[in-house]
Amino acid sequence: MSLLIKNIGTIVGIQPEGIERLCGEQMGRLETLDAAWLLAEEGRIASFGRMADGCPAAGQEVDARGGMLFPSFCDSHTHLVYAGSREQEFLDKINGLSYEEIARRGGGILNSADRLHDTSEEELYRQAMERIREIIRMGTGAVEIKSGYGLTTEDELKMLRVIRRIRQTAPLEVRATFLGAHAVGRAYVGRQSEYVDMLCREMLPAVAREGLAEYIDVFCDEGFFTVEETARILEAGARYGLVPKIHANELAVSGGVQVGVAHGALSVDHLERMGEAEIEALRGSRTMPTMLPGAAFFLGMSYPPAREMLRAGLGVALASDYNPGSTPSGNMKMVLSLATIRMKMTPAEAINAATLNGAYAMGLSREVGSITVGKLANFFLTPAMPSVAFFPYAYTTPLVSRVFLRGEEFTA
Ligand code: NIG
Ligand code: FE
Q: Which of 76, 79, 159 to mutate to test the pocket of ligand 1 (most atoms within 8 A of CB)?
């Protein structure tokens, strides 16, 4: 089956083959082509060119009516499998409690773990698929999803099986991350090192036996897991071939960035608290620093120092962190607006961070993340816009008008 998109005002995010990530100054360049067409065949981008040079015929034709075509967002950090919601804690925060205080009182992640325990796998899948359809409609074409609201072997497996089922049934690309070290499970409160032992001895082999995850995450931060515990967990994960993608430096300068880089992490995520040493540790590494401005916005924290990282020549990624506690939103367009407005990234830098570099941060940049011949035909159309900058500028206007995944329109 072939699909032709014609009368495209501008194709955004074109890359030659073989570019896996963009760093520093490269991030400020966004390749575009005006007055264009794009052809997809067998679910992949087959060719694109200028309308003036004539366009090929195809089984299905879509008129973009002068709108722009963007590569789908690649959201490399979410927790979108969860049960229910936590707006009670939202009210607690309005009334003055901090995220850490709520967690100390047994709310937060443990609250979600209790709910997840009481929810069937079927119901969990149903709730998660609603969120999946929501993010697809908002332009996401690849997503990483973490466990971490189970915190017992049985419930972590339940979450990861739901992620596997999403992967088998949803039209977007999915990658799974085991986050048993999101918090200490209720039965182990006060016995953190025993929880870490159990995670390494029991949870990890069970996850690996069923092949349920490709990545491993640890919440390495003040009040959660220490650098030493993180190192132990990452080493244990490496024995099963799990690559680290970790939560670091959200609540404190935790040492999380350094321990992640030292263990070959594909990404270190959050980074609200960063110093010179953290930036230095990332320089020359394979690790993609990933910022989640939705969390800083929702929790009223300071934003990660995007400009400093870019000035140091680093590549950066942007992701949503979609979760019930710190960011109940998977809206990547809003993430672009936060990145431009609050972190002073240019629209080009932010779009590259949310597409190609996001794809890199989940090991998918050969398949998605840019308009490149041979990559999956995952893209969305917008109405006609005066410029690319209009997209993050019009920060609540719904500008993702039609979505295509593997060359097929998503209409659900
Ligand atoms: O990325 N920081 C740790 N984990 C999530 C929040 C989890 C929750 O509150 O449920 C985050 O912000
Ligand atoms: Fe997170």
A: 79
Q: Do residue 338 and residue 260 come from a single domain?
A: yes
**Residue 218, domain extent:** 73-360
We report the CATH number of the domain holding residue 374 as 2.30.40.10
Q: Pocket around ligand 1: residues whose beta carbon is below 6 Å from it?
A: 79, 108-109, 112, 219, 247, 250, 295, 321, 323-326
Longest dimension (CA), the chain: 69
Pair (210, 355) in one structural domain? yes
Minimum-distance ligand 1 atom for the alpha carbon of 327: 12
**Main-chain phi, psi angles of 314, to 5 degrees:** -80, 150
Q: Is the domain of 222 the same as that of 124?
A: yes
User: Does residue 249 contact residue 227 with C-beta atoms inside 8 Å?
Assistant: no
Residues paired with 48 in a beta bridge: 38
* Tally of CB atoms within 10 A around 19: 15
Domain boundary among 342, 360, 378: 360
Cα-Cα-Cα-Cα dihedral sign, residues 403, 404, 408, 412: negative
Ligand 1 pocket mutation, candidates 323, 327, 335, criterion most atoms within 8 A of CB: 323
Distance 323 CA to ligand 1 centre (A): 7
Domain count, the chain: 2
Residue 220 · residue 256 · CB < 8 Å = yes
Same domain, 386 and 373: yes
Amino acid present at 207? V
Residue for token pair 């899948």: 125
- The per-residue pLDDT string of the chain (412 residues; one tens digit each, 9 = 90 and over) reads 899 999 999 999 999 999 999 999 999 999 999 999 999 999 999 999 999 999 999 999 999 999 999 999 999 999 999 999 999 999 999 999 988 889 888 789 999 999 999 999 999 999 999 999 999 999 999 999 999 999 999 999 999 999 999 999 999 999 999 999 999 999 999 999 999 999 999 999 999 999 999 999 999 999 999 999 999 999 999 999 999 999 999 999 989 999 999 999 999 999 999 999 999 999 999 999 999 999 999 999 999 999 999 999 999 999 999 999 999 999 999 999 999 999 999 999 999 999 999 999 999 999 999 999 999 999 999 999 999 999 999 999 999 999 999 999 999 8
